[in-house]
Design a protein that fits this description.
By secondary structure, the chain is an alpha/beta fold. It has a 7-stranded mixed β-sheet with strand order 3-2-1-4-5-6-7, with helices on one face. Strands 8-9 form a two-stranded antiparallel ribbon. Helix 1 crosses helix 6 and helix 5 packs across helix 6. The protein is globular and about 50 Å long.
Length: 208
């Protein structure tokens, strides 16, 4: 059984998608052990509590410096014996010390088709604003492993979503979540939990 640690900063809609998929049996051989947020007011923590899951706030504000915060976060993941760290809208950069502690065991969901509209500064609505400004006809979402760069780790799954002429950033954001993020994040977890994902030379292979 793969023990998941889900890191979130806001409402937790991606967390909910994972919870629903586990309950429906679409994600097998995995359970959420702990949900951690850097934001005490994150509704994601309430979602976790409703499902009887350990829900914690670990905020940089609670510590004297970032290094101490990073140590606390890493210790919490270790104490909960987490096998896979899932970044589900976590707006804090993961430091090398945690990446190195969980090699190819941290995944992130990004609301674009990487390498488009990714990297430093591309998060939340900023991604969709950039896609609309560029006039792309197709966008989507990507699940990737996390390395020490920003959105540069090996790509696991991607799913395309149509961009419509009347879209606003918020409308496009919702469509990308519904049609892509909430589909491929649980799917990636299921694949990893069942030993179907391998990484070789920075590229992911998925067993049929």
């Amino acid at each position: 059984m793969l023990r998941l640690g889900v890191l979130v900063s806001g409402g937790g809609t991606n967390l909910q998608a994972v919870l629903d998929s586990i309950e429906k049996g679409e994600v097998t051989n995995a359970r959420i052990e702990v949900v951690i947020s850097n934001n005490q007011g994150a509704y994601a923590l309430e979602r976790a509590k409703k499902h009887g899951i350990n829900a914690l706030c670990i905020s940089p504000r609670q510590y004297t410096d970032r290094e101490e915060f990073h140590r606390a976060l890493l210790n919490c993941l270790r104490e909960n014996q987490v096998d896979l760290v899932v970044l589900a809208g976590f707006l804090v950069a993961i430091p090398p010390v945690i990446v190195e502690a969980f090699p190819n065991r941290i995944i992130n969901i990004h609301p674009s088709l990487i390498p488009s509209f990714c990297g430093v500064g591309y998060y939340g609505l900023h991604v969709h604003e950039a896609a609309l400004k560029r006039g792309v006809k197709v966008t989507g979402a990507t699940v990737h492993f996390v390395d020490t760069g920003t959105d540069t780790g090996p790509i696991i799954l991607q799913k395309a979503v149509e961009v419509k002429a009347e879209d606003t950033p918020k409308i496009l954001q919702q469509r990308v979540m519904e049609q892509a993020e909430w589909v491929i994040l649980p799917r990636a977890i299921d694949l990893i939990a069942n030993g179907k994902v391998t990484v070789t030379d920075g590229k992911v292979s998925i067993e049929d």
